[in-house]
């Protein structure tokens, strides 16, 4: 008779009847909120129990994203306290919103998957029984849609993670574990930002301005823009990052640190100076792309929204998926109204969009843009680097084996 072990080695894949009682995980607790290098601590945590519609994954690799910099800080959302308010018991957070691994346990209502199957996790978690979704609604508009590994617990930074069966996608055999684990959140987010928001979906010869072009989101957005025969221009803070973006297909780059007008509009400051800097920024875009951007891929938020809306073309769209510099956006309304510009929020992607991105990567039409692989022990360090904006370019992966 097999006895269930207390623990197993990192990277080991257990038989279904040998799943351990405890697992190693990088854990955030409320009393450690703050700098990521201190907030994440390796601990032994009980392996999560499954609900009927969930599967347990032995993680082989994970991806790194900015959302767990926020989780480490407990701001702008204390994800632990929020889940406790919703009835969950765990006073800790295991993050990680990108991952790939092997199914080792299946809930009794799960169909279409089997033990031992290799999968990529798409991080859009939702309740399939939600009335909106059952009527055919886009899951991302459901009130129960959550970012797995951020708004939900038991993400990819543990030996085992649990996911809804709707989050499981087949891992292509031509991708390594690290490549499989790093691109879905950034790739699907960029895909939706560029294609979903009619009539401002990307068209041939559109000019697309991409903030933070050397990051994971930017690396995928550059490639997708070229895939749709449009023209990507990026904003970065160094020549090295600019050249990296050029290697991915960017038409050109603008150095953000050559300007000093960033931040929310403040009536006490000189509006003439701020506007002149925005006009100079606009001229830099036009010198590369010869027109104003039709679509602007935004995520810095507070510091850059005024400029994004200023330089956006008439009838163009600024589409935003985050607020890495802050969430208090301000901008001048007169030309925004007169030129009928659009400010559009965008939150990850739906399952069909995830499948399209996976196919592009599997077929070699889109690179995962993986540039660096770290060890499990380095999860705190790389999140600290991400907070300080000194992390590697492109997408980043964590190796478990």
TrEMBL record:
Keywords: Acetylation, Cytoplasm, NADP, Oxidoreductase, RNA-binding. It holds the Pfam family ADH_N. Residues 34-398 form the Enoyl reductase (ER) domain. It is found in: Cytoplasm. Its EC number is 1.3.1.85. Signal peptide: none annotated. SUPFAM superfamilies: GroES-like, NAD(P)-binding Rossmann-fold domains. The keyword Acetylation applies. One of its GO terms (molecular function) is oxidoreductase activity. This is Crotonyl-CoA carboxylase/reductase. The gene is ccrA.
